[in-house]
Automatic annotation (TrEMBL), chain B:
Any one of the GO CC terms: ATP-binding cassette (ABC) transporter complex
Coiled coil: none
EC number: 7.6.2.9
Record SUPFAM superfamilies: MOP-like, P-loop containing nucleoside triphosphate hydrolases
Species this protein is from: Microbispora hainanensis
The name this protein goes by in its record: ABC-type quaternary amine transporter
Enzyme class: translocase
Superkingdom of the source species: Bacteria
InterPro entries reported in the protein's UniProt record: AAA+_ATPase (IPR003593), ABC_SmlMolc_Importer (IPR050093), ABC_transporter-like_ATP-bd (IPR003439), ABC_transporter-like_CS (IPR017871), Mo/tungstate-bd_C_term_dom (IPR008995), P-loop_NTPase (IPR027417), Transp-assoc_OB_typ2 (IPR013611)
Keyword terms, alphabetized: ATP-binding, Nucleotide-binding, Transport
Ranges for domain ABC transporter: 6-236
Any one GO molecular function term: ATP binding
Automatic annotation (TrEMBL), chain C:
Family: Belongs to the binding-protein-dependent transport system permease family.
Membrane-spanning intervals of the chain: 40-65, 85-113, 125-153, 173-190, 231-250, 270-291
Name of this protein: ABC transporter permease subunit
GO biological process terms on file: transmembrane transport
Annotated membrane topology: Multi-pass membrane protein
Gene3D superfamilies noted in UniProt: MetI-like
Amino acid sequence: MPLLVFVVIVFGVPMLVLLGGTFTKEGTFSTANLTESLQGAYLTALFGSVKLSALVAVLGGVLGTFLAQAVVTSRFRALREAVLTASGVLANFGGVPLAFAWIATLGNSGVVTTTLGLGQHGWSLYNFWGLTLVYLYFSIPLQVLTVVPALDGLRPQWREAAQNNGASTWQFWRYVGIPVLTPALLGGVVLLFGGAFSAYATAQAMVGSTVPLVTLKIADALTGNVLIGHENVALALSLDMIVVAGLVMAVYLPLQRRSARWLR
Amino acid sequence: MNSARVEFRGLRRRFGSTVALDGLDLTVEPGELIALLGPSGCGKTTALRCLAGFEQPDEGEVLVDGADITRVPANRRDAGMVFQSYSLFPNLNARDNVSFGMRVRKAPAAKRHARAQELLELVGLPSVGDRYPHQLSGGQQQRVALARALALEPRVLLLDEPLSALDAKVRVTLREEIRRLQLSLGITTIFVTHDQEEALSMADRVAVLRDGRLEQVADPATLYDRPATAFVAEFVGAMNHLPGLVSGDGVTVLGQTLPVEGPSPDAAQADVLVRPEAVLVTPDAEGDGIVMVSSFRGSTARLRIRLGDGTEVLADVPGHDSARFAPGTAVRIGLVERPVLVSARSETGAAAAVPEPDVV
Amino acid sequence: MASLTPQVTPQVTTQAATGTAPARGGRPRQRGATAARSRVWRGVVLVLAAVYFLVPLIASFVFTVKVPDQGFSLDAYGQIFSAEGFGGSLLLSLGLGVATIVLVLLLTLPAAVAVRLGAPRLRPVLEVVCTLPLVVPPITFVAGISTVLRWGPDYLATTPLYQTIIAVQNPDFPVVLVLAYVVLALPFAYRSLDAGLGAIDVRTLSEAARNLGASWPHVLLRVIIPNMRSAMASASFLTLALVLGEFTIARLLSFETFPNWIYRISGSQAQVSVAVSVFSLLITWLLLLALSSAGARQRSGS
């Protein structure tokens, strides 16, 4: 199949080179790059990325679920359609334009910043919390998209059967509702983590390299912002990222399968 | 298990512009199995849900053993319910599903597992305790749901079309089993269905509902033989509408004069309601009728016969006789001598045979 | 199920109604209070969400039309078109988009059909292949690519592959970007095509066509593709949106695509860059809205 050949060449070769480069230093096999990528500023960046992604994933997961629940229980059909369509659009809204929209809003000379005079109170968008705020903008809609089908899949019979067996609303959620939703909720959180973890454009356009993030470090290293002889550290960092992302996917897929089985 | 008497009194419920229940009065005797039968939208499910506490009636009350439970929340009512389908909790295995109610009531694990096992044996599934709903067949799921409904020893059992999502064969075995179980437990049971065959074969009494009102409640034989209204007559089994002439206590139809059952209409021209099995057919080259269609059903064959005046009549003949009534055969028809039900002439003018209701 | 559905929604209404009619006993009033509370809660959530999601959009627009000491002006939008590099970068991105769409459809459509018809055992392989680009962040992918491009010339200087490597980096039309974008677009394209194929029952269709004497190419061109139009359109739209917004790979390989151009001019012309952002956002929205309403129309039509 031509598709497989294509993927092997265009995707496989760079990945192999990446793997090879990671373990090569000055022409010989070495784990020095990998070790270096897990030390000092690089380790800080890796932690920074994980911390930011985890925060975005948890916050986005919780807020997105609330929004999804509000939409699903609403009796206005049009509201539901509007929120779902908007979520579809906003979940794909990332990159440079997103960063600029927020800079124009809450940046140093942003409309809201100047109108409310936030600048005098030490407000700055260009830090860890600012990034979190901006990342949530595409993460919450993504969570809505993941969770709404699961909430729709909660059959009214389950709640009624639980009531019929003497359960209170709280007991229904505790023994049935939340356990049934958990795979979908966690699956969504994992997706959000992955999205935030690999985001680069938004961060680059917003904060440059003032917030330590692994994607920014890799880009720096690739564009020659490192000492001679350390170019391959970028590759090692990339490998670190792939490992983290791979772990995330390894968690996500079984969760998704279980959720699909329960809510079919 | 002590069984309860259930009374619906003047129950009214409307959803927007549709009236689901329009003053329903019905009493269910302790230990009996009553079937609520009717077309979809007749209010039978709403009545059941009012009893279970999932619906609040706008007017009227629901009494269990004389106590008004209309305002008691659903989770404090003493009624076990089996739903149409997919009501098992997907995250719990069969045993935990059955013992859910006991878990909510904080019964110790060992005790509730033992009880769940007992119930699973009762419904004929002793070895599925560890399986999850998606690993069970539809029939097994409904058995587990039944065990779950019985787990808290309710005084009333509610069945909301529990068989309608199952295969024909499973449906028949399961309905026999439900009936057997109900008789042995002696539990008051209300069974909602749109399938007349199911209702007639299982219930002690059948209540036919139409537009939120009770049309008739009677034991299956009475319901079939002496339908109180034309609606019941048509909904339960197939029915011929034949043109007749009323005179005094008798009605003349197809050249025969038969006594009238129930009230006679004012007009002389009327429709006479006759079951297909009450039509006698004999092959006769001189006969007035011609067999148009013959559909073989095993024990019987149903014939559609056209008479000289254009009237169409449905008639049932024994299956082994069907060869004598191939389409095109000329036949003579008569009616069994017994009282017949008469209704006002239908607007369709010349009485035509009613299309058969779908018997699935 | 059918008998349940119409009853679920009105239930909310009546509970809310009993809440406002205190003449009933204690119980329904309590239930009404719960319903009212959950309605308030729902309203708060929705309002907060609306504020969070709408304010940046509105503020961005205000930012672009507000000129100090002058008030309202649409100049920034006018300047977009005259700005240096605008036409070139937009054309480059569009060209890349078209090339990527063609290539991705050529690769995935036969593969998706083949998996449905002939080789269902290859399906897991294809699923994995199409999940990989989601697992591997674009930045690590580009790290690999740039390394290949950097090292390639040293090792391959004497072979014809050297020419290839130079050729794919032609700044007028960087084929390497097309190749990379095809990989990124694979998961989305494959999913929408596979969903489209699932909806039309390819097997029966193609067997019917074969039975009527059609050859395989004929089946593909005359039977399957016409029935797949909307799935292919959705795959194309998603791919286009992806290419038009892609920043990471183009930036790190130093090609000035549209997003990179926006980024570059942001330093000198902040207003224009935000205006372009708003503008490109609108275009993406229109594309995706068209896509989702087309999808909805098709669902209701079938």
